[in-house]
Amino acid sequence: MSSKIAVMADPDTVTGFMLGGINDGFPVSNMEEAGDKLKELAKEYSIIITTEKIGDNFRETIDKISSESALPMIIEIPDKKGSIDRESDPIRELIKRVIGVEMVE
Amino acid sequence: MAQEMIEGINPTRMELLKLKQREKLAVKGHSLLKEKRNALIMEFFNILERVKGSRDEVAVKLAEAYQDLTAAQVTMGDLAVRKAAMSVTESVDVDIDSRSVMGVVVPVVDSKLKERTIVERGYGFMDTSVKLDEAAKKFEESIQLIIELGEIEKTIMLLAGEIESTKRRVNALEHIIIPRLENTVKYIEMRLEEMERENFVRLKMIKKTMETEAV
Questions:
Q1: Which chain A residue is nearest to residue B41, measuring alpha carbons?
Q2: Of A1, A24, A26, residue with least CA distance to A11
Q3: Is the ipTM of this complex over 0.85?
Q4: What's the rounded Cα separation, in Å, for the pair B58 and B143?
Q5: Chain B contact for A97, CB < 8 A?
Q6: Is the dihedral of CA A23, A27, A33, A34 positive or negative?
Q7: In chain A, what is the straight-line distance between the N-terminal and C-terminal CA atoms, in Å?
Q8: Cβ distance of A47 and B147 shorter than 8 Å
């Protein structure tokens, strides 16, 4: 089964990914729009690429979607301003909780 | 430590048998779950090996790509870049399969990136700059990495959830359910023995009275 990939991010990031060959780009300019779009895309696409900023804003929604089933996978990437400094990386936090010690540098 | 027990159990032989059965089942379940937990953690460590550095790799690659994109936007104008991006043909072909790790369904992504020449990308050359070509190439490479990263992160998330719930169940069995069953079994055994002794004494007394009466 061939699966569909979507990009939902700020217009510049979307332009970049469309240039890279992903045809379904959804530029969003404000956070409210992003939230609605995210829920909509989660039903249809199996891979959704979004930015860390959007990811941080909708942490709960994303966690809910990604912990429930194998698909869709939501991938957060840094936008063009670079990766934001987080106090804790969600993945690292998760690993720490499961294993009990800090594992990944 | 207070001896915790299951409430409302009658000290009868029937109950004792039932409880012993339950205890056996709980112990068996506990060892099975423990095995499952260990297997999951092993799988988890294997995946952790893969996640190391892959996020940084994506960040670096993307930073380069964004730089080229910005350069292209500067030389060509924002609109022209967007127009070129619109006409780019699809480059990635992704197959998502699933694999089961101890009952946890995790995705396995098989992505095929078509190596494309500049001509195949689909935008015209008249009004595009070299920077655009480079940006497109870098974005193609990043997409491949990003999809891989997505697969790994998703797997980690799913495994982590399963490990947590398995851990909780193992602990609940080990620290609450099994001790409680053990204590209840002990209690019933003691009660039954006590009853037997009482009965024994009663019989002795009856025998004694019968003997004195006979004399």
A1: A99
A2: A26
A3: no
A4: 9
A5: yes
A6: positive
A7: 36
A8: yes
Per-residue b or e along B14-31, where b marks 16 or more CB atoms closer than 10 Å to that residue's CB = eebeebeebbeebbeebe
According to DSSP, the β-strands at A2-3 and B92-101 are: antiparallel
DSSP 8-state assignment for residue B81: H
Helices A59-68 and B130-172: crossing angle, nearest 10°? 70
On chain A, the residues whose CB falls within 8 A of the CB of B66 are: 12, 16, 79-80
Query: What backbone torsions phi and psi does residue A21 show, to the nearest 5 degrees?
Result: 110, 20
A vs B, Cβ pairs < 8 A, gives: 143
Distance, in Å, from the CA atom of B176 to the CA atom of B153, rounded to the nearest integer, reads: 34
Q: What string of DSSP letters covers B62-79? A: HHHHHHHHHHHHHHH-HH
Q: Do B90 and A20 touch (CB under 8 A)?
A: no
Cβ-based neighbours of B9, under 8 Å, separated by 6 or more: B15, B19, B184, B187, B188
* Full-model pTM: 0.76
Contact A20, A7 (CB under 8 A): no
**Residue predicted with more confidence, B187 or A12:** B187
**Measured between alpha carbons, how far is B100 from B195 in angstroms, rounded to an integer?**
54
Spell out the per-residue pLDDT of chain B, length 215, in tens: 456 778 778 888 898 999 999 999 999 999 999 999 888 888 888 888 877 778 778 888 888 888 888 888 888 887 877 777 777 777 777 777 888 877 888 878 777 776 677 667 777 777 777 878 888 888 888 888 888 888 888 888 888 888 888 889 999 999 989 999 999 999 999 999 999 999 999 999 999 999 998 87
Which chain A residues touch B149 with a CB distance below 8 Å?
75
Paired tokens of B149: 């990263």
Beta strand B104-113 with A73-77: parallel, antiparallel or unpaired? unpaired
- Count Cβ atoms within 10 A of the Cβ of residue B163 and give its class: 0-12 exposed, 13-18 middle, 19 or more buried: buried
CA distance B91 to B113: 6
